[in-house]
Amino acid sequence: MNETFAIDPRRIHEITDSGYVQFSGDFACKEGAECIVYWMSRDQRIHDNWALIACMNHSIKRRLPIRILFTLVPEFLDATLRQYHFMLHGLEEVQKQAIELGIPFDLIVDKNPGKSVIAFAEKHKAGIVITDFDPLKIKLQWKQIASIGLQCPFYEVDAHNVIPARFISQKTEFAAYTLRPKVHRLLDQFLVPFPDVQLFKQANIHLVSNYSAKDILKSVSVRRDIQPVSTFSPGPNSAMDALRSFIEHKLEAYGEKRNDPNLGNVSDMSPWLHFGNISSQTIALKIKAQESNKESIDSYLEELIVRKELADNYCLYTSDYDNFNGFHNWAQTSLNAHRSDIREYTYDQSQFESAETHDPLWNAAQIEMMNTGKMHGYMRMYWAKKILEWTQTPEEAQSIAIYLNDTYELDGRDANGYTGIAWSIGGVHDRAWFERPIFGKIRYMNANGCKSKFDVKRYIAKHSANQGGISLF
Ligand code: FAD
Ligand code: FO1
Predict the structure, then answer these.
(1) Angle between helices 415-426 and 377-389 (to 10 degrees)
(2) pLDDT over 60 (residue 467)
């Protein structure tokens, strides 16, 4: 095949030692190169992946084969066996799909990914290294190390957002209402069908899929007391199955029922979106094409595009996305004014972790997360806000919420999580509400509010400690 695929250059930035430079013109390539490397990280999939499509274009233009590299760190934020099990089984499938296209897929275990990509590029005489976009600090550090040592051009492609995060805004957006008009203005330019990469094939006869998740799991040093869950099966194929099932059975009533944690009338896409097993653009294209309830389609796309991409914007431009300093001034002032308010209840991290508060509704949410690896979205707001109410300081609350979220959620360690917790505890992307103890002007939520929304007793009964299912402790 010799014609290249269409890709919007606004997705692409060159990573230079003076930072990220909006791409223009053609990719430079190192002389005497023997391959093009896709350093895969956030977007763990072969299909509908703009970073891989960019590699294919340069493979075609320069007649150089692609190699995919995944650098596995033995520990990643608060990830446990649960998340590594999901990710590595997903990567087994990704490797198989790469090999179907004749693309070698290497997985290297190294606590310093930046260094291992430099060595890999040298070993395979890479002419270009392309990686995918990720706003988390840890990933920016990895790329910083790589960019210093790489002896070839290094590019980043936003394969995670429908509208590239670095392009849609150059600052922290105040709230959804400031980002939404930009999304709606640009959506037609970016919500476009993906090229079919099946047309791309590399002649590689001796490729074998030689990684087993089981073996690699032995080399990671993570907590193993938090078991894998059977509620979500990993990988791109399962992601597509779940999407089809959502469209068929739940999309119609999404608008009306999505906030009722007893009904589970949500897409459950977040674990696969987090690990990049499916692109939000693929989901958006399929949802938009449905002849379904317009209010449900609109509210789903609002969450999938505006809310999700607002989270990337927050983490990209607010390096304090995981701490108190990231909150708006009004929120910091207000929370500070209530630091010495009496807390009727206070719990420490381990009491929260073992769902031992006085509140059966909160405990049920914690148990749902520990048992299934995914707490219902409505309950996450209540869950985080109660941690603010039952800890001595907002800093402690945020740190406990992040720890629990990133330890037990399959979709944790994600821009959506840091932003969701900052929204709940620090009013980020929210407005000031009338003043009250402890919360100050941060939006308050209580069990009565939940009772007016859904059958709280039923939710508690379903997720109680002595309920059947995986043993908790
Ligand atoms: P659906 O309702 O089916 O939505 C589809 C997709 O839209 C989601 O997968 C997600 O990508 C996006 N989306 C939906 N709601 C939000 C939102 N509020 N913010 C950003 N994107 C959204 N999401 C995570 O992916 N990982 C987390 O760790 C996480 N932690 C959270 C913690 C708190 C305290 C709060 C308030 C929210 C958190 N969220 C997190 C956001 C949201 O709750 C989840 O994305 C959603 O519940 C995932 O389930 P779903 O895919 O079934 O959602
Ligand atoms: N990305 C990597 O490139 N290498 C890893 O070893 C790795 C481990 C990992 C474990 C749990 C988890 O939730 C995410 C992990 N990621 C890893 C990052 C992931 O691919 C996403 O890029 C980010 O977490 C989302 O921003």
Answers:
(1) 50
(2) no
The DSSP secondary structure of 341-385, one letter per residue, reads: SPPS----HHHHHTT-SS-HHHHHHHHHHHHHS---HHHHHHHHH
Type of residue found at 47: H
Distance 377 CA to ligand 1 centre (A): 6
For the chain, list the domains and their CATH numbers.
9-160 (3.40.50.620), 168-196+234-317 (1.25.40.80), 324-469 (1.10.579.10)
Pocket probe for ligand 2: among 69, 76, 77, the residue whose CB has the most ligand atoms within 8 Å is 76
Q: What is the pLDDT of residues 303-350, one digit of tens each?
A: 999 999 999 999 999 999 999 999 999 999 999 999 999 999 999 999
| Span of 221-230, 357-366, 386-395, 464-473 with lowest mean pLDDT | 464-473
Are residues 91 and 70 in contact, defined by beta-carbon separation less than 8 angstroms?
yes
Instruction: Return the SS3 of 209.
Output: coil
**CA 189 to centroid of ligand 1, rounded, Å:** 25
Q: Report CA-CA distances (Å) from 193 to 6, 94, 285, 287.
A: 10, 21, 7, 13
Our answer on whether the CB atom of 270 is closer than 6 Å to any ligand 1 atom is: yes
pLDDT of residue 470: 43
Threshold 0.90, pTM exceeds: yes
| Mean pLDDT of all residues belonging to the chain | 95
- Spatial CB neighbours of 210, under 8 Å, sequence gap ≥ 6: none
β-pair type (35-40, 12-16): unpaired
Nearest ligand to the CA of 405 is 1
Q: In the predicted model, is pLDDT for residue 106 greater than 80?
A: yes
Instruction: With CA atoms as reference, report the closest residue to 39 among 26, 27, 28, 54.
Output: 54
Q: How far apart are CA 349 and CA 218, in angstroms?
A: 29
